[in-house]
Design brief:
Order of helices and strands: HHH
Organism: Pseudonocardia oroxyli
Distance between the termini: 16 Å
Largest sheet: none
Transmembrane segments: 17-38, 76-96
Protein name: YGGT family protein
Radius of gyration: 17 Å
Keywords: Membrane, Transmembrane, Transmembrane helix
Number of helices: 3
Strand content: under 5%
Shape: elongated
Amino acid sequence: MAVGTNVRRGAGLLARVLNLVGMLIVAVLVVHIVLTLLDANPANFLTEFVRDLATYFNLGLDNLFLPAEPKLAVTLNYGTAAIIWLIITAVVVRLVRRIG
């Protein structure tokens, strides 16, 4: 087996792992938005866990938009973070595949 083949396989595997991680982050942000819009119990363990993860991954955008409606604020701010994570993931995965 040639070295180039191993490098391509390794880069492909790394790209898949990075894509999975990026999509999981996006999923956490979207689930947080959905739980907020559906008025999930904020004291529930799952809701708290998702909210804490989403806050960690929101890229500091939790106060980007400040509408009067709190649900709209969560949707806009965390939705923007989710879109940015999608773009970051796509760019990084493409770079890794191109390098490999």
